[in-house]
Amino acid sequence: MASTDLNLVRTFVAVYDSGSVTAAADILGITQPTVTHSLNRLRRTMNDELFLRAPGGVAPTMAARRAYPNFVEALNRIDAAFRLSAPFVPDAEPATFRIALSDAGEVSTLPHLAHALRRSGAHLSLEVLPLDIDQVEDQLIRGEIDAFISSAVYTSRNVQREVMFTERYVVVLAENHPRIGAEISAAALDGERHIAVRGVTGHSSPFDRQQARKVRLDAVVPRFTALPYLLADSDAVAIVPLFIAESFAASHPLRWVDSPWPMEEVEVALYARQPHSRSPSQQWLFDVATDTLQSAYPATDGAE
């Protein structure tokens, strides 16, 4: 392999990651015959078919599965060396970063990211796309987005998941709620009128618990952002992640108390292409977003 063209290795990894010769050509910006030619050269070198036809594309052979981790590690090391020699310089290079976020991400993480970019350089901008969990992998591979943030656990060999913070669920309510003080019991929460959020990927636990406990639902909405306007002049309550509750309380006449219902904490993670597939600017964004969000949301305990 010492004499093998590095581009053959990149082609192999692109085909392995995408499961398609056509998709690999799009990722690499080359023609499909060029990908096929490169694979044929690598097949002769490794004396193996490497990829076999499969429904929707190609599937790796056992030899390809054994080679993949070594090839990825080698590319990561080489690309890291190039990034060190030619790093992204935010105050000298204009760039627009595209990030997919849910409405929860827009409320909580987006202000921190936007502030971090403003501090880093005058030529940086941020474009936010709506998070479609069924499309994000293809969007990453095609370069339509640079990263996305979600509490949904998304697993793919093409995507790196880095947990930004872990958060618990709390009860958010009007600042002058007539019955709830600094805390509430499970029985009392069962008896309150609720606003439920259903359909937010990664946040199904509150709605499932409200259903299981047969609480009275005044309304069911598809996004968190509707809650402040429904709760501010009401005696209803909602169950939301703490970082959402804090954001709402900072800008609306709302407050929060700890939830007495047992619910698992939620992990909010940053997702991006694997290191070997990132440009220097994408690696810079990944590092900045990780540092910013992990610092902005340290472990918390106790109620407001």
UniProtKB/TrEMBL annotation:
Keyword DNA-binding: yes
Positions of the HTH lysR-type domain: 4-61
Keyword field contains ATP-binding: no
InterPro entries: LysR-type_TF (IPR050389), LysR_HTH_N (IPR000847), LysR_subst-bd (IPR005119), WH-like_DNA-bd_sf (IPR036388), WH_DNA-bd_sf (IPR036390)
GO molecular function, one term: DNA binding
PROSITE patterns: HTH_LYSR
Pfam families named among the record's database cross-references: HTH_1, LysR_substrate
Keywords: DNA-binding, Transcription, Transcription regulation
Family, per entry: Belongs to the LysR transcriptional regulatory family.
Name of the protein in its database record: HTH-type transcriptional activator NagR
Source organism (scientific name): Dietzia timorensis
